[in-house]
Amino acid sequence: MLIFTTAAELRTYAEQARAAGRRLGLVPTMGALHEGHLQLVRAAAQYCDEVIASVFVNPTQFNNPDDLRLYPRLPEQDAAALVPAGCTALFMPSVAEVYPQPAILRFDFGPLERVMEGAHRPGHFNGVATVVSKLFHLARPHAAYFGQKDFQQVAIVRQLITDLSFDLELVVFPTVREADGLAMSSRNARLSPAARAVAPLLYQVLQQAAAQVRLGVLPAEVQQQALAILAQVPEFTPEYLEVADAQSLQPITSYDAGRPVVLCVAAHLGGVRLIDNVVVA
């Protein structure tokens, strides 16, 4: 596996691979890799000749300085995990390499980003779109691989690809979970043993809410009951729980036949912010 730290190195590698007729897959990450990330790398390795993984804790998508400071950084461990998964090139740039000067361009994804994560983390998706655009330009992938755990982020990236005419395929894989249902996340490593023990409740609440959606319980009631369950657990501080249209991400007040629904939740647990979602077809 090659390791690049500069944009010029990655660009040269990608251009040479494309010129040789190789299919390139890109797996963008912020590191502290877990099985969810490695699933994406293995999938890319199955369908692509070259697999580029990026490990970059992107400061422009953090609106909480403490979250940025405490985000796990395990570069050696990440590199060791990527090799057997099939990664052929690892891009690990510095902040100065990615942002030689502050970006002036600002992205606005309209209603897609005015709800949920976008509403509670101002500027977050501008940072996501900026760094993803840079990676697409540098790595020139034929396919980019993302996980469904960041459901709204996937919707934003899909819109980015459409609006800027990036010539690549977006491949999305289901959320990978621990045995007790907790969605795998790099932030899970920051949970204390006590917090980790109650963390699976988040997914359990989503499952119960999904069952109610299937029974036709009105969205407002589904939301109210789910938040009430979380409120009974003092360790949790819910930020939002939305019953939304799975395509537009807008909150719904009723159900339309054939329109998938997504249940999205964010909550703080022991100083760690967790998110999860469940799609109801």
Q: How does this model look, in words?
A:
- The chain is an alpha/beta fold and 281 residues long.
- The chain has 11 helices and 9 strands.
- The strands form 2 sheets. A 6-stranded parallel beta sheet has the order 1-4-3-2-5-6, with helices on both faces. Strands 7-8-9 form a 3-stranded antiparallel beta sheet.
- Helix 7 packs across helix 8 and helix 10 runs antiparallel to helix 11 (219-231).
- The mean pLDDT is 97.
**CATH top level assignment of the largest domain:** Alpha Beta
Question: Averaging pLDDT over every residue, what do you get?
Answer: 97
- Quote the distance from N terminus to C terminus: 40 Å
Identify the overall geometry. Answer: globular
Number of helices: 11
Number of spatially distinct domains? 2
Order of helices and strands: EHEHEHHEHHHEHEHHHEEE
Structural class: alpha/beta
Number of strand segments: 9
Strand order of the largest sheet: 1-4-3-2-5-6
Tell me the strand percentage band. 15-25%
**Residues in helix, %:** 40-55%
Task: Extract low-pLDDT stretches.
Answer: none
**Could you say what the CATH topology of the largest domain is called?**
Rossmann fold
Radius of gyration: 19 Å
What's the story with the biggest beta sheet?
6 strands, parallel
CATH architecture of the largest domain: 3-Layer(aba) Sandwich
- CATH superfamily heading of the largest domain: HUPs
Subcellular location: Cytoplasm
EC number: 6.3.2.1
Main location: cytoplasm
Binding site for ATP: 30-37, 147-150, 176, 184-187
